Known about the structure:
The chain is an alpha/beta fold. It has one domain: Vaccinia Virus protein VP39 (Rossmann fold). It is built from eleven helices and seven strands. Strands 3-2-1-4-5-7-6 form a seven-stranded mixed sheet, with helices on both faces. The structure holds S-adenosylmethionine (SAM). S-adenosylmethionine (SAM) is lined by residues 3, 6, 10, 54-56, 60, 76-78, 81, 100-101, 114-116, 119.
Amino acid sequence: MQNKDLKKFYNRVYSRGEGKHYTKLVLDKKKITDEKKEILNEISWEEKTVLDVGCGTGELAYLVARKGARSVLGVDYSKKAIEIADKSYKSLNPSYRCEDISDVRGKFDVIVMAGVLEHIDNPLLFLKKTKNLLNKKGSIILTCPNWSNARGYILLALKELHGAKITLADIHHFTPLEFEDWGKKLNMKLSWRTFEHGWGHGDKMIEDLKKRLPKLMKGKKEKEINNFIKWLNEHTPKLEEDRKASGAVALYHFSK
Ligand SMILES: C[S@@+](CC[C@H](N)C(=O)[O-])C[C@H]1O[C@@H](n2cnc3c(N)ncnc32)[C@H](O)[C@@H]1O
């Protein structure tokens, strides 16, 4: 799978409605997701010029503008996403543009991307190009799924050993290790943290696996799946929330 193949996929997701695609564990339309809250709380957005890469239906760009950013541009290659963003949050700030992110020009104080880097063919090259769009003291703040936890190891074993389709759109399965390497290669400072620990190795993981495993095993091995989930439920130690790398979602902040 390549990034260009995902354009059609995302147009379909947004046409059907995001609620049908994302599990309710991630998306609860009534409130802002923890992922967006983490991004919003990462810095002061006052007077910043911001680019939201892969802005989807525009909520994050809107929230950043409400936090006092001077200008926010949201860019996404899904025409449907931008139509919805324009309809939902029409204003001069944020503005939205249907464009491939490799075509974006300009300079920004902060470049933000929520759940996008895992869909990019060559993430390091992409981060290098993104760095070129930053002003002198600029930052890149991004979030992505994190796989260095019990849920990640279980699902990746099924993918690698049994060819199970564990995600519909992810090209990469990141852990903090590659980001630490990229920070050095980009010559940028890096800080990071993970969150959603219950999803990485706790109650939400059990709930998620109960739904996913029967689908991944195509209805076979029902008894074995039940036994496995029972074993996990009884034997997965409730890891400390402060285990730095074990949350299901990670936030990376590169700064110049
Ligand atoms: C998982 S969604 C995240 C959407 C949004 N950031 C959010 O958090 O709600 C990934 C988004 O990246 C967009 N995207 C992926 N590759 C892109 C590219 N090359 N150019 C522009 N947008 C892209 C997709 O269309 C999709 O809307």
